[in-house]
Each structure stands twice: as structure tokens, then as C-alpha cells.
Amino acid sequence: LSHLRLLSSPTPQLTRDEECLDAFQKELDYVYRSLRRLGTPPSEVDDLAQEVFLALRHNWATYDRERPLRPYLFGICFRMSAASQRKRRREVSYAVMEVDEPGPGPDETLLAKQLRAHVLNALEQLPLKRRAVLVMHDIDDVAVRDIAAALSIPLFTVYSRLRKGRRELEAALRRIPAPASRTTPATSGGHA
Amino acid sequence: VSEDFPALSPEVRALLDRERTSPPLSPAVRARALAAARAAMAAGGGAAAPRAPAAWTRWAVAAGLTGVAAVAAATVAYRHQHASAPALPAAPAGTALATEPGPPPAPAPLAVPSLPQAASPAAPLPRLADDGPRRGKVTREELRLLSQARAAVAREDFAGALSPLAEHAREFPNGRLTEEREALHVKALVGLGRGDEARRAATSFAARFPRSVLLPAVRGMSARSE
Questions:
Q1: Residues of B in contact with A73 (CB under 8 A)
Q2: pLDDT band for position A93 (cuts 50, 70, 90)
Q3: Where does A27-143 have alpha helices with state H?
Q4: Whether B110 and A174 lie within 8 Å, measured CB to CB
Q5: pTM
Q6: Contact between chains at A146 and B6 (C-beta distance less than 8 A)
Q7: What distance in Å separates the CA atoms of residue B60 and residue B38, rounded to the nearest whole number?
Q8: Sign, CA torsion A147/A153/A158/A164
Q9: Per-residue pLDDT tens for A124-141?
Q10: Which of B12, B88, B128 sits opposite A112 (nearest CB)?
Q11: How high is the pLDDT of residue A89?
Q12: Mean pLDDT for chain A?
């Protein structure tokens, strides 16, 4: 029976890895979106997403499955983005340079793309820490206490960053010229 | 705590709502990312073994690049999977909105193309998330119904808000926007002068979302209806 013991030992490891990959796969869109919202330039998103996966895998054994995954993943994205930002420290606003999102789907209009770039551009103006809280709260609808846990900061800090971040975002959106505020092509069918 | 919160203006709220429904990754990007992740897993030994992420990444990228066959297979699989993926909501037609004065300190009005969500002139309730039934993705339909209701409440067409709210409750009883729906429901009932129902709805809201930061506003509304 000893060979059974030998054979069985790697199985849980494999299962855990597969489970982690499965979770990553399900949230891949979210990881990419979050990295972009946190200011990662399109050319670096692939690499950073891999770092997120590796960090997730590394911590998967200790990850508390009772907690929602997205805030946890966002926490990893945030830390990776912060480290990467510290490394490059460029002066260029990436969102202005390009918005290399996945090819436009059948319904994705130019305007939708421009609006997205507009929001990313404005988010880019916020310091990363406040941007992270605002994105989590006002786009991802993460509860304040989960934000605090994911970013390892006190509740009060979440509130104050959110308060400041909202003001800054409003101001940034006023400063940056909005796309296509002139004429917008009518899209028949609307939102029904 | 919610009292000191600068509520987002309807225009900004609308832009952020739109950002939520950003398009899915292209099949090629997905395939590339997953192939690299698989390669890292296959090459990397035990997951518990501590390693520097950067080193792992280099390995993953190198291995991913060599796994051309895996990429191709995954691309086909994902293309197939996404063939029926829901598309991004079409950009709404309309002229520039932007005539609503923003919050008092705003130096200039926001110029954004009109969006259904942006139709509300009233300051929206601060949107604060809570746990509970808010799991999964906000669908386009959820957003549409809630936007309708929000816009109706904003123009004080409280009766008109009830229909999209009821439809949302029917279609998405535990949707991601349940909390906002229930808060809007209280507001609509108060607006219609249906005080008893508003109080009952507020009580039910408090029971369902005891930690919601919308709760003070909901309580305030139902108290005013007494």
C-alpha cells in the first residue's frame, strides 16, 4: 500500500492549484479591469496580471474562503500596482496615451470607448491610495469593512480616503475635457 | 458617517456606472494570460513554496511564450465561449446634458454626453456597499431598471418609479443593486404619501441591511413621513 501513499500525496496540492487557477480564470476580467483602473499601462497589464496570479497562488492555502474573493484580489492588484508605480515613476499619463482595451465588441461604440478613457484619465489624477478606495467602493460596490480588510487599513482611513477621493474625482472630471460632448451619433434601439 | 460624505454628482455616478460594465477581455488576451498561469503552475512546484513574485513572473512569461499550442487551443476555446457574451450597453443617444449645476463648489459644469443614469437632477443617495445578497455581477438590465427608477424619483415622479422598482424586485430579488432598490422604494413611498408602507419598507430595509450607510437616510425619510 505504500505506493498509494506516494501517489496520493501530490493530489491535494494539484487540487488546490487547480482551484486557484479556476478562481483566477473566473476573475480574469476583473483583475485586468482593476489593474487598468489602478493606472497600470496597457503594455504592462499582462505581466502584472501574472504577478497577481502568482501572489494569489502563493497565498491560496491561507486565503479565507469565507471572505469575498474580489476585494482580496483587488488588494493584491493594489499592492502590485503600487510596487510597479514606484519602479517606473514616469511622468506620463498612460490613460491619455492609449486605451488598449479588448477589441470593440459589436455594440461597443467609439463613444463608449472614449467615455471609458475619460474615466480612467480622471482616475489617473488621484493618488493611488485614494483611487483604490474609490474604485473599490464606487465602482465595485465593496463594503467599507471589506475594503479596510483588503487594503489593511483602518475603517476611518477608508472613509477619509473615499471622501477626499470623491472630491478629487469630481474635480478631475471637470478639468479634463469630456469626449464627444458635441454631437453624439444617435444609436437606434437605445437601452431597451 | 454618511452625513459628511460628498455624494457623487449624477454625471459622475453615471460615468462610474458605465465603467462597471466595461467589455470583457478579448479571447486572445484571456488565452495568453491563462496559458502563462498554467505554465507557471506546471513549472513551479509546490504552491506553498515561497518565491519572489518577480522571478515567478519571468518564468511564467517565458513558459507562456513557448506554449504556442496551448495559447492557440485556449484561444479557440475562449472565442467559442465568448461568442454569445453579452455586449456592452450601446452608448445612448442624446445631446450634452451638463446643464445641471453641479455641487456648489463646482467651478464648471461637467460636459458629458447624456446618459440615462445622468438624467437625475437630485443628488443621489450616497451609494455604499454592504454585504448581504449583493453578489455576482451587475447586469445591464439591473442598471437600466435602477436608472429608470432613480431618474423618476429625481423628477419626483414617484408613481413612475414604482414600476421599474417592482420589475427589478421581480427579476433580481437578490441582485447587486438590491440595497439601492429598497432605499429608492422607501423614498418613492414617502413621496407618494404612503407613510405606513414607507415605514414598513424602512423597517424591512433596516433588518436586511443593518450595516448599510444608506440606513440613516432611509430612516430619515420614513421619519419625515410620520
A1: none
A2: very low
A3: 28-37, 42-59, 69-88, 94-97, 110-124, 128-134
A4: yes
A5: 0.51
A6: no
A7: 8
A8: negative
A9: 999 999 999 999 999 999
A10: B88
A11: 66
A12: 79
- Residue A89 falls in which region: left (phi positive, over 0), alpha (psi -120 to 50) or beta: left
Task: Give the pLDDT of residue B18.
Answer: 84
CB contacts of A174 in chain B (<8 Å) are: 102, 106-110
Asked if A39 contacts A124 with a C-beta cutoff of 8 angstroms, the reply is yes
| Residues of chain A with C-beta less than 8 angstroms from the C-beta of B8 | 138, 166, 169-170
Put simply, the answer to whether A191 touches B108 (Cβ < 8 Å) is no
The set of cell numbers assigned to A165 is: 477621493
| Cα A137 to Cα A85, A124, A166, B23, B130, distances in angstroms | 22, 16, 10, 20, 10
- Look at the block and give the residue holding cell 486605451: A99
Cβ-nearest to B88 among A108, A163, A167: A108
Locate B18 and state its grid cell: 458605465
Distance from CA of A1 to the nearest CA of B (A): 24
Nearest 5°: CA angle at B213, between A38 and B133? 80
> Cβ neighbours of residue B188 under 8 Å, at least 6 residues apart?
B149, B152, B153, B158, B159, B161, B162, B165
Q: How far is CA A97 from the centre of its chain?
A: 19
d(Cα A161, Cα A137) in Å, to the nearest integer?
A: 11
Query: What are the E-state strand segments in A76-151?
Result: none
Which residues on neighbouring strands pair with residue B198, listed in sequence order? none
Q: Which amino acid is at A61?
A: A
Q: Does A43 touch chain B (CB under 8 A)?
A: no
Asked if residues B2 and B213 have their Cβ atoms less than 8 Å apart, the reply is yes
pLDDT along chain B (226 residues), means of 10: 68 87 85 89 57 47 50 53 42 34 40 38 43 55 84 84 91 83 89 89 86 76 74
Nearest to B24 among A20, A29, A182 (CB): A29
Closest-CA residue of B relative to A190 is B92
Q: DSSP secondary structure string, B199-217?
A: HHHHHHHHHH-TT-TTHHH
Query: What is the ipTM score, two decimals?
Result: 0.74
